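User: For my dataset I need records formatted as: sequence, then structure tokens, nothing else. Please produce one.
Assistant:
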Amino acid sequence: MTKRDRVIYAIEHRTPDRLPVNDSFWEDTHSRWMAEGLPPDAILREYFDFDIADFSLDASPGFEAKLLSEDDEYFTMQDRFGYVARKTKGKSRTIDYKSYPAPDQDCWKSVKRKFQSKQLDKSSLIDNIGFPFRLSPAPSWAEARKKYEAAHTDEYYILANAYGPHEATWRLHGFTETLLDIAMDPEFIIDIASTYVDSFMETIEACIDRGMTPDRFWMIDDVAATRGMLFSPDHWRQLYKPLIAKIGHFLKSAGIHFWMHSCGNCEPIFDDLIECGLQVINPLEAKSGLDVCKLKDKYGTQLCFYGNIDVRNMSADDETCEQEIKRKLSCFQQGGYIYHSDHSVPPEVSLNQYNQVMEYVRRYGAQ
């Protein structure tokens, strides 16, 4: 069975030859592992025999990405989305956002024009190097096509990710400002979010037109925290659900699977997401009270689950780690699950410990 087939079987709740596997890592986890013997030129998806090739989409309004300042520990940059942020070098830490391009209605008019006049042919809008916080230029469409074809030839399941409507809106308007205006000025939020969604769909169409149709779109849309939604489910249904349904319809018509990442616990809107065409949900953080075995009992074949292996147990003793993986993987003997940590593997997990995780996943993920 090819890697691509293996993932498709899991999504369709059919039994693959073995559990599909993929994962995400903090920047400093990679640094630690190189110090522990990981070859410096290792490509992690090949080293751990993952089944998914990750690509990123540039659905931004097209601001110039530029370095504004740096020292030994931090750098400050303007991103393609127009926000200015200060970030720790080589580490995954809380990001200090300094400003946003659309703090008010007048500024939004200018940003909206940038979305509407975006030049899709200027450079590629898809790459296997992420676009957020990226200072290097995008490749040409021809260069991007070579990367896509290499992943396709190796029979990977190809992922393409971009922000969802809420994530894009707050990166344009500001995190606190967006939460306030969800209640105070919902029409403004709808205008920003719908403009972005139109731009996102144009980005996907540009990739399709050039022979690069991803197997799935992975919508990055953090709408929850550890204890629940960031705002009420009713507000989400009013503002964002129609746009999520629009994305779902568009992806289905293009033959692209619909995946979503949301940190925290967004289970209050799982049924709504299913109505919108969502097929796979991630990362299902264990510390927020989510458990894939209970979710499987509740949602059956309506969702495929991607994650929920508690990273805290990866750095615990071997017995704790093994029981975490054995219990959760044993719930999925007929598809419906793809291995992933319950967010990203932190630097507290050593290379030896993660190799042990992979051994348990192969052992208990055999079908």
